[in-house]
Amino acid sequence: MRRKIVAGNWKLNTTLQEGVKLALSLNELVGKGVPENVQVIVAPPFTHLTEVRKVIGNKTGLAAQNCSAQKSGAFTGEVSAEMIKSAGAGYVIVGHSERRNYFNESDLDLSSKVINAIESGLQPIFCCGEKLHEREKSIYTEVIKKQVHLGLFDLDAEHFKKVIIAYEPVWAIGTGKNATPEQAQEIHQYIRHLIEEQYNSDMADNTTILYGGSCKPSNAREIFSKDDVDGGLIGGASLSADDFYSIINSF
Ligand code: PGA
After folding, report:
1. Number of structural domains found in the chain
2. What is the span of the domain harbouring residue 142?
3. pTM of this prediction?
4. Euclidean distance between CA atoms 169 and 166, whole angstroms
5. Does residue 215 have its Cβ closer than 6 Å to ligand 1?
6. In a domain, 97, yes or no
7. Local confidence pLDDT in tens for the 251 residues of the chain
């Protein structure tokens, strides 16, 4: 059975103290139980990783929101996948649309990040998704195909097994306007089809594909009920422990 995941992307929010408080609140709720086969993950800012690791239980996963495309050396301000792993994280978000669009991260950069992450023992949560004008022009499948091919399909099968994918339509992120469950299902199924073409049907069946973009307690149940949707990457709603826990319990 495919693993379900609910991951909280805190983005550029919370001081260290606020982040630890949020993690403590979440930990208390998660301690009451989460649905079977659901992995909870939190992705705080880099500065919070070690402290958040100390307060979340062993069952909750820890992710960074980005990693360097470089391994080490004279790259001031960068944080490598190996450093993230050594801080106690098991996951890293790669290719979030905010990184692609505001920081000009290219498909080539993202491919290097994915490889570095996996070689350092992290599971990448690889994001893809089309912009509004690409959806309106009905070229969204081509956009996603290109992102997935260039970012991920250089990996051999052993490495690809570590990949988690998040479909996040850019027009749905932080806008309050989520994709409909049917729109999410269409793309998740399409991504699974791409994986089957590149690898095989087992790989397609076993890859966890998350939905992200204005996912909240009021819509999570309906979105997660779709066959090919294995959970969510949650931004705004992950900043409230109660809302995030309610989304976790939407399966
Ligand atoms: P949102 O963000 O839930 O605030 O729309 C999702 C994301 O960017 O991962």
Report:
1. 1
2. 67-212+223-236
3. 0.98
4. 10
5. yes
6. yes
7. 899 999 999 999 999 999 999 999 999 999 999 999 999 999 999 999 999 999 998 899 999 999 999 999 999 999 999 999 999 999 999 999 999 999 999 999 999 999 999 999 999 999 999 999 999 999 999 999 999 999 999 999 999 999 999 999 999 999 999 999 999 999 999 999 999 999 999 999 999 999 999 999 999 999 999 999 999 999 999 999 999 999 999 99
With a 6 Å cutoff on the Cβ, whether 174 touches ligand 1 is yes
Tokens 């693993």 locate to 3
Provide DSSP, 183-220: HHHHHHHHHHHHHHHHS-HHHHHH--EEEESS--HHHH
Atom of ligand 1 nearest to the CA of 233: 9
CATH number at residue 137: 3.20.20.70
| Cβ 219 under 6 angstroms from ligand 1 | no
